[in-house]
């Protein structure tokens, strides 16, 4: 294992306390190494609806895509041991991925760069128009399966935003929507719950968060207002709690 991969693993290990793992208690964190050396982290985000869990590797990769990184050179995983599903996810990403160690994968199509700094994902500090911001974000969507780009910005209580786009995968079960992408990035950076979630679907003037995203919105940003860009019309707004009445909140589940 070369020193640069050790540096990736160290970055991932340092993020383990940020993992949102109330149901398994098994923290997991990943770091993607972009072609320019930038490090993009992601933690495991569990949902009361267990099958909606966002694995750390998926959180890191989708954060990278939302930030405009298309070429990833390596991925390192710390904490919870990798499963067959982790390997299948990584091998389905663009490129020629190979596992070089129990917890590190490299993309043979991209030259491994020197390891640089962790990215700054916060956007829109000075944005006055959240709709034009989210439309720009949607331009980063990775949509080879649907050609249906979606963009999302979660706005934190301090006014900073975090971007999300839909990131597709040959295994449709591993596709992440824009909203869950942005919400899970907020967890990686240890942010408080978002107060606004701005959404745009360029191809659907009636676009609205899917059921899975509504579930994660209830769990991670229950007091947020969702603002849906409607093209030429004024955006439509709705409270998260009204979007999913009677939501399953996992109150009866064992929390570790
Ligand atoms: N999609 C989103 O990003 N958000 C939603 O709320 C609805 C669906 C994406 C996921 C997938 O890439 C494509 O749209 C079709 O489902």
Set down the secondary structure blueprint:
Elements: H1 3-14, E1 28-34, E2 39-43, H2 56-66, E3 72-79, H3 84-91, E4 97-101, E5 104-107, H4 130-138, E6 150-155, E7 161-165, H5 178-188, E8 196-201, H6 211-220, E9 225-230, E10 233-239, H7 240-243
Bound molecules: tetrahydrodeoxyuridine (THU).
The site of tetrahydrodeoxyuridine has 13 residues, from α5.
Structure notes:
The protein is of the alpha+beta class and 256 residues long. The chain has two domains: 3-107, Cytidine Deaminase, domain 2; 130-243, Cytidine Deaminase, domain 2. The protein has seven helices and ten strands. The protein has helices spanning 3-14, 56-66, 84-91, 130-138, 178-188, 211-220, 240-243, and strands spanning 28-34, 39-43, 72-79, 97-101, 104-107, 150-155, 161-165, 196-201, 225-230, 233-239. A five-stranded antiparallel β-sheet has the order 2-1-3-5-4, sandwiched between helices. The protein has a five-stranded mixed β-sheet with strand order 7-6-8-9-10. α2 packs across α5. The model has no long low-confidence stretch (mean pLDDT 96). The structure holds tetrahydrodeoxyuridine.
